Amino acid sequence: MIKEIYLKQPSEQETIKIDWSERANALVVAGYTISAIEVKVFDSGGGQDVTASMVNGSPSYSGTDIFVTLKNGTDGSDYSARIRVTFSKTSYPDQIQEEDLRIMVRQVGT
Prior knowledge:
Blueprint: E1 5-8, E2 13-19, H1 21-25, E3 33-43, H2 51-54, E4 60-62, E5 65-71, E6 78-89, E7 92-105
Parallel strand pairs: 1-7
Antiparallel strand pairs: 2-5, 3-6, 4-5, 6-7
Protein backbone atom coordinates (compact mmCIF):
# COMPACT_ATOMS: atom_id res chain seq x y z
CA MET A 1 0.00 0.00 0.00
CA ILE A 2 1.32 3.43 -0.85
CA LYS A 3 0.65 6.82 0.68
CA GLU A 4 -2.93 7.82 -0.07
CA ILE A 5 -2.44 11.53 -0.80
CA TYR A 6 0.51 13.65 -1.86
CA LEU A 7 -0.04 17.39 -1.26
CA LYS A 8 2.05 19.90 -3.24
CA GLN A 9 2.00 23.56 -4.22
CA PRO A 10 1.82 24.51 -7.93
CA SER A 11 5.41 25.70 -8.30
CA GLU A 12 7.03 22.87 -6.37
CA GLN A 13 9.21 20.29 -8.08
CA GLU A 14 10.13 17.45 -5.77
CA THR A 15 11.33 13.87 -6.06
CA ILE A 16 9.20 11.59 -3.93
CA LYS A 17 10.04 8.10 -2.73
CA ILE A 18 7.39 5.39 -2.79
CA ASP A 19 8.09 2.32 -0.68
CA TRP A 20 6.87 -0.67 -2.71
CA SER A 21 8.18 -3.32 -0.29
CA GLU A 22 4.77 -4.32 1.09
CA ARG A 23 3.45 -5.07 -2.39
CA ALA A 24 6.71 -6.78 -3.44
CA ASN A 25 6.61 -9.02 -0.37
CA ALA A 26 3.07 -10.07 -1.26
CA LEU A 27 4.28 -11.95 -4.35
CA VAL A 28 3.73 -15.69 -3.77
CA VAL A 29 7.03 -16.71 -5.41
CA ALA A 30 10.25 -15.34 -3.91
CA GLY A 31 13.11 -13.93 -5.97
CA TYR A 32 11.29 -11.43 -8.19
CA THR A 33 12.91 -8.04 -8.72
CA ILE A 34 11.58 -4.82 -10.21
CA SER A 35 12.37 -4.65 -13.92
CA ALA A 36 10.24 -1.73 -15.11
CA ILE A 37 8.19 1.19 -13.81
CA GLU A 38 5.55 3.26 -15.56
CA VAL A 39 4.01 6.40 -14.05
CA LYS A 40 1.18 8.28 -15.72
CA VAL A 41 -0.64 11.25 -14.23
CA PHE A 42 -4.27 12.03 -15.05
CA ASP A 43 -6.39 15.08 -14.31
CA SER A 44 -9.13 13.95 -11.95
CA GLY A 45 -11.61 16.32 -13.57
CA GLY A 46 -11.64 14.79 -17.02
CA GLY A 47 -9.12 11.98 -16.99
CA GLN A 48 -6.77 13.79 -19.39
CA ASP A 49 -3.19 12.47 -19.42
CA VAL A 50 -1.01 15.26 -17.99
CA THR A 51 2.13 13.19 -17.44
CA ALA A 52 4.31 15.38 -19.70
CA SER A 53 3.54 18.49 -17.66
CA MET A 54 3.66 16.90 -14.18
CA VAL A 55 6.46 14.31 -14.25
CA ASN A 56 10.03 15.51 -14.71
CA GLY A 57 12.33 12.92 -16.28
CA SER A 58 11.86 9.19 -15.95
CA PRO A 59 10.87 7.37 -12.78
CA SER A 60 13.60 5.19 -11.29
CA TYR A 61 13.97 2.54 -8.60
CA SER A 62 16.44 1.09 -6.14
CA GLY A 63 15.48 -2.21 -4.55
CA THR A 64 11.77 -1.74 -3.79
CA ASP A 65 11.93 2.06 -3.53
CA ILE A 66 10.46 4.00 -6.46
CA PHE A 67 11.45 7.59 -7.19
CA VAL A 68 9.30 10.02 -9.20
CA THR A 69 9.89 13.76 -9.65
CA LEU A 70 6.58 15.64 -9.64
CA LYS A 71 6.21 19.22 -10.82
CA ASN A 72 3.60 21.84 -11.71
CA GLY A 73 -0.14 21.37 -11.37
CA THR A 74 -3.00 23.83 -11.14
CA ASP A 75 -3.98 25.27 -7.77
CA GLY A 76 -7.17 23.65 -6.53
CA SER A 77 -6.87 20.65 -8.85
CA ASP A 78 -6.54 16.99 -8.00
CA TYR A 79 -4.67 14.41 -10.05
CA SER A 80 -4.24 10.66 -10.02
CA ALA A 81 -0.82 9.11 -10.58
CA ARG A 82 -1.07 5.54 -11.85
CA ILE A 83 2.05 3.67 -10.80
CA ARG A 84 2.60 0.35 -12.56
CA VAL A 85 5.50 -1.86 -11.45
CA THR A 86 6.71 -4.92 -13.36
CA PHE A 87 8.61 -7.66 -11.53
CA SER A 88 10.71 -10.24 -13.36
CA LYS A 89 12.32 -13.54 -12.48
CA THR A 90 14.11 -15.91 -14.83
CA SER A 91 11.88 -18.79 -16.03
CA TYR A 92 8.77 -17.25 -14.45
CA PRO A 93 6.08 -15.00 -15.93
CA ASP A 94 6.35 -11.29 -15.17
CA GLN A 95 4.19 -9.97 -12.34
CA ILE A 96 2.57 -6.53 -12.72
CA GLN A 97 1.24 -4.51 -9.80
CA GLU A 98 -0.55 -1.17 -9.92
CA GLU A 99 -1.41 1.48 -7.35
CA ASP A 100 -2.83 5.00 -7.60
CA LEU A 101 -1.51 8.03 -5.77
CA ARG A 102 -3.83 11.01 -5.37
CA ILE A 103 -2.03 14.31 -5.92
CA MET A 104 -3.65 17.46 -4.51
CA VAL A 105 -2.29 20.81 -5.66
CA ARG A 106 -2.99 23.66 -3.26
CA GLN A 107 -1.34 27.06 -3.00
CA VAL A 108 -0.70 27.76 0.66
CA GLY A 109 -0.35 31.42 1.56
CA THR A 110 0.13 34.19 -0.96
